Amino acid sequence: MLTLYHAPQSRSDVIVELIEEMGIRDKVTIRQVTIPRQDGSGGRDPANPHPEGKVPYLVNGEDHVRERGAIITYLTDMFPEAGLAPLPGDPRRGAYLAWLFWYQGVLEPVAIFQFAELEHPVLTATFRDYDTALAELDEVLRRQPWLLGDRFSAADLLIAGPFNFFKDQMRSTPAIAEWVQRVYSRPAIARAAEAVA
Length: 197
Ligand SMILES: N[C@@H](CCC(=O)N[C@@H](CS)C(=O)NCC(=O)O)C(=O)O
What we know:
single chain; 197 residues; alpha+beta; Glutaredoxin; Glutathione S-transferase Yfyf (Class Pi), Chain A, domain 2; 2 domains; binds glutathione
């Protein structure tokens, strides 16, 4: 049995949403844990086995998975019949993996640098910047409804997440805003909120 360590209103929400999208709610035990919140509330939960006490964290017997991109890949590979990701051999597999890793390795860092008003030539040389990332996303979403074209995937869920959560801080474009709206209008999003209410 799979166990997901989850804290509502956090980065682990996307995994609960994915579980609903995939229809695998009966295959995953969702354990709510506390985390330290930026307003000073909460705190590290001894019940959470994540090495840093973070969420999300997925446990499958002896196997432990951290980082949203890895957890998403693990679940979409484990339950291919759910149809939330192109499988190895599919010509969109590379794009799928690239979007997940681009989110973790580029978009989230540049969004945080911008929020923290951090600028340094080394950061720009390594990650480019928020405007560059936004332009790349916008260019794709101006010509197709989902990141992989006409097919919704778990990559849409992961990357739309912060635009929805940090509406006031994450500058966007009309094409991106419409895509976020499309993602967050999906019935699984409402089911995910109820699943852990
Ligand atoms: N890179 C990790 C980040 C996980 C993360 O920072 N989660 C936050 C929740 S929004 C957390 O658990 N914070 C508690 C802490 O830092 O102790 C991922 O993408 O899964």
